[in-house]
Write a structure and sequence with these properties.
The chain is α+β, with helices and mostly antiparallel strands and 81 residues long. It has a single domain, classed as Rubrerythrin, domain 2 (Single Sheet). The protein contains two helices and three strands; from the N terminus they run αββαβ. It has helices at 10-16, 36-41, and strands at residues 19-25, 31-33, 64-70. A three-stranded antiparallel beta sheet has the order 2-1-3, with helices on one face. The longest helix has 7 residues, at 10-16. The radius of gyration is 13 Å and the shape is globular.
Length: 81
């Protein structure tokens, strides 16, 4: 069992500069990058990403998928515009 010290946090993810945290809502299919600087400003920078309770910015649903991918990767299912 891990104590959480080796899990990525908003602070370590933001510091890496090449990783993005992409959130997708199951309910309304809204997709957006996580606002990592806002989490740091709110004092949540050292909480592991998997322990954060994500909410959709559009519909406020808590049914969110989170993936960490390379910043330069193109997501084929993202709508243009």
């Amino acid at each position: 069992m891990t104590d959480g010290t080796d899990l990525p946090t908003p602070r370590t993810t933001l510091a890496s500069r090449f990783v993005r945290v992409l959130l997708t809502c199951w309910h309304c299919r809204h997709q957006a990058d996580a606002d990592l600087p806002a989490l740091l400003a709110a004092g949540r920078g050292d909480v592991p990403l998997v322990r954060l309770r994500w909410r959709c910015a559009r519909c406020r649903s808590g049914k969110i998928d989170m993936i960490c991918i390379r910043r330069d990767r193109v997501v084929p299912w993202r709508a243009a515009g």
